[in-house]
Amino acid sequence: MTLEALVKEIETRSAKEVRDLEAKLEAERRAIEEATRQESVRIRGESEKRAQVEATRERARLVASAKLQAKKVLFEAREKRTASALEEVRARLVAYAKGPEYPGLLSGMVSAGTSTFGNDVRLLVRPEDVPLLPARSRTLVDDGRPLKGMGGLIVEKKDGSRSLNLTFEELLRLREDRVREALGH
Q1: Above 70 in pLDDT, residue 185?
Q2: Is residue 77 part of a domain?
Q3: Which of 121, 76, 141, 128 has the alpha carbon at shortest distance from 98?
């Protein structure tokens, strides 16, 4: 083989190897681009899913928060209405204590206390209620411990071992749950 043919053969082989390398590099470049594109699609899809999940969570949190706030507002409105109604009940009890039926109620309270504890009792009443008591009951009043409040009385055994609290405040406190229920709370 001549030198020219040998150089031509080397150039031909070199050109073929360069083409083969270029084709191989092009194939690798395409494979890398395709892998990058697929990874990008995968990452984008995961990001969208995560964003959707986060948006759903945030929506659920906001809805729950709004529901809780609505319940709180409703509860506060009911409490305000109940407090107002209880104040109205208290005002009516104060008015009742100034009315014509109140002395009869006091007499009935004394009777309930003496039927529970016997006649060996003392009465705790408001000073303004003493004249409203039956004459025989006035002797049972403990003047040293006057009551303050809306009305009613406390019947105690003289030895202090037991008492029956029939004050309007205590009767209302004991029945507050029923009053709240009656008010629709």
Answers
A1: no
A2: no
A3: 128
Q: What type of residue is 2? A: T
- What is the distance in angstroms between the CA of the first residue and the CA of the last residue of the chain? 113
CATH number at residue 132: 3.30.2320.30
Whole-angstrom Cα distance, residue 24 to residue 26?
5
169 and 103 inside one domain = yes
Whether residue 107 is contained in a domain is answered as: yes
Q: Where are the alpha helices (DSSP H) in 97-163?
A: 102-117, 135-138
Q: Which two tokens stand for residue 168?
A: 């309007």
Per residue in 110-135, pLDDT (tens digit) is: 999 999 998 899 999 999 999 999 98
Q: Token pair 């009305």 is at which residue?
A: 151
Cα separation, 2 vs 145, whole angstroms: 141
| Same-domain check for residues 33 and 103 | no
